[in-house]
Amino acid sequence: VQLQASGGGLVQAGESLRLFCVASGFRFNDYAIAWFRQAPGKKREGVSLINGSDGHTYYIDSVKGRFTISSDNAKNMVWLQMNSLKPEDTAVYYCAVGPMGYSNWYVAEFADYWGQGTQVTVSS
After folding, report:
1. What counts of helices (H) and strands (E) characterise the chain?
2. pLDDT per residue over 58-76, tens digit each?
3. Are 53 and 30 in contact (CB under 8 A)?
4. Using an 8 Å Cβ cutoff, are 32 and 97 in contact?
């Protein structure tokens, strides 16, 4: 299994970024794909998840209405559109693969596999 994340960068508050995760080595429709983030000194936390089979999406409260997760199963790709970015969104962002139906998907134990991180920095 390989997960390749990209798209991070430095932006000002209120601007947008799109993160990409290209996956290989597993059947996309059988898993859930999530984006996590980890800020310095903080736990890694789930941000958003999409089910590979039915496209259902989930978000943590702090990003609802600002972030949108989408997927293209034919291309084994997931992306995270992040709008109205805030300084508190600054973190290393990771894509991860785990089982569908995992109730606490937003904790790091959800993930069976991790991609490498991509840095997102939002200046005020």
Report:
1. 0, 11
2. 999 999 999 999 999 999 9
3. yes
4. yes
